[in-house]
């Protein structure tokens, strides 16, 4: 009794302790989540700080390039104003003088790469222009309403910015008065087209804005941000801008800045809404977060801003928080499992203790069991029975002690009874061990109603004698149990069918994910190609600009030769133009083939051809940065199993990385060497640079996706990972190491075609 009282007292105390322990760990879990959230905020602040420093450097570089590019044109109007041919044309305005001046202005523009140069008389009428042959020629247009003309007529050097009313192109204007003695007889104007600067900085990792003194976006890497207002303008100011025709009737709207948080005088965080039109013509709004850094450009009285996207930083912080939160959650679950296992072990120990205690009560259990139990001697006579069988019969059975079992139990039919009796007798002489006999029958005694039961007879191996234990079970209960088991089996079969259907759906989804993964891999390879083409865009422009300039010169000269009836020289000029056209076609075809999509399709290809194709793509960039590119002598007839376009992509990636490594460290000797080596079964391509080589950490993680040793924003870290996948898809391998004399060495090894043919023949 005292033990029971103690247990009743302890149980509530244990429950209170358990609840408090759960609350304590829940508080620790919430505290860990709060620490993860605050840590994410601190990490984000540090990354934003680093981004701000790098963005300031990029902004200074952008502003210096813009100022330097425009500054070289500010003195051109002064030089043109001092030209005697300009003064003569303004004084006389003879067609011959104006025609000669037009050609001279066109030649000056071609040399200086200015947008347009033109001469305006004192009435504001354009008499000569560099674009006199174009449909958008300024000749004959009156620009007296432009402020730069009005300033020049007052004897001042004029400056102005506007959207051209004739050319429809944005530009910055420099003007200067033309004097004839002390009298102003006209104005010289040079227009600088800002589109060339937008194209130059279009493929950066940031967006840039060139903002005029009124706060209107005059130039941007995003065309949909043009003519948008960053601040506020009064109605009078907007009317002033419209009257000056600065933006030629363009509607001035506010840029959709929905959030702005200043960090310092030049830096702030802004959220901008962008309209995205879906294929179903449904317009969606997306909110993008940027780090905006602004500085003035004194030369233009403009401000230039860089908007660096914070999407990557926000995604990294979210991933960091998810990883650590997942770790804390897993730790809590593991702790819970440990507590559950401790509880299970404690319960198992209690069960064993209970089993040992129950052994002392086995006999009591037998006496109180619901099944009817009867013991028989070696001759199958009744020795004893438990109360359950008396309760089953509804009368005392003490007179049956010493009687055969057949007096109490009758099988279902006599034939079975005779057979089973023979089996029972056989137990007396069978020395194979314990035997069990089960049959159905009825309990019959005196005048009581027969009770259908199942009888089980088993032999008990006792130390000194043989005896039998007979168990009687009411068939009514068994039938009920059989019915429940049947229902449970049917439910289990239904559950199995449902689970099979779920597994089939899961397999279908898995196959779809595998196909999507293959598509993602192909898109990553195409992205790497386009990234290389983006890095080489400046070289491509240079390669195409030179023959285009030559074509224009040959065409102009050819027209003159035709006028002079010098057909032989004109024919020679046409031949030069045809050759230059073929040259440009080869350049464009090479980059079109390089940029095409597709899967790796191994076939016999020439290694030397792939190397020459990669060199042709990278040649311009290497020349621009002054890197020497050496191709050692090798067998030009080496054939491997591979894909020409994808092999070229791998080589271009390796050559681009070699150039980046050299430019990053600026060694005394800038050199990249390409070498071929072949064995009986393989062909190896070596690319060696003269940089500082690879760090130990870089060598370990070099081919992992998104790993890069370049500065922030200089790459995604996918080039070498994609190159490795491509080479492995062609049955080869790619390795990297440091050279003994310094610099990095990459080796691409592919199976040789002749070796593969020999193996097929042997098989």
What does this structure look like?
With 763 residues, this protein is an alpha+beta fold. Among the domains are: 76-193, 2-Layer Sandwich (Beta-Lactamase), CATH 3.30.450; 366-479, PAS domain (Beta-Lactamase, 2-Layer Sandwich); 598-762, Histidine kinase-like ATPase, C-terminal domain (Heat Shock Protein 90), CATH 3.30.565.10. The chain contains 19 helices and 26 strands. The strands form six sheets. It has a six-stranded antiparallel beta sheet with strand order 7-6-13-12-11-10. Strands 15-14-19-18-17-16 form a six-stranded antiparallel beta sheet. The chain is elongated. The two termini are 88 Å apart. Mean pLDDT is 77; it is low at 1-5, 414-434 and 755-763.
CATH topology category name of the domain at 598-762: Heat Shock Protein 90
Profile the largest sheet. Answer: 6 strands, antiparallel
What does the average pLDDT come to?
Answer: 77
CATH class of the domain at 598-762: Alpha Beta
Percent of residues in helices comes to 40-55%
- Spatially, the strands of the biggest sheet line up as 7-6-13-12-11-10
Number of helices: 19
N- to C-terminal distance: 88 Å
* CATH homologous superfamily (4th level) name of the domain at 598-762: Histidine kinase-like ATPase, C-terminal domain
Give me the Rg, rounded. Answer: 47 Å
CATH architecture term of the domain at 598-762: 2-Layer Sandwich
Q: Given the helix and strand composition, which structural class is it? A: alpha+beta
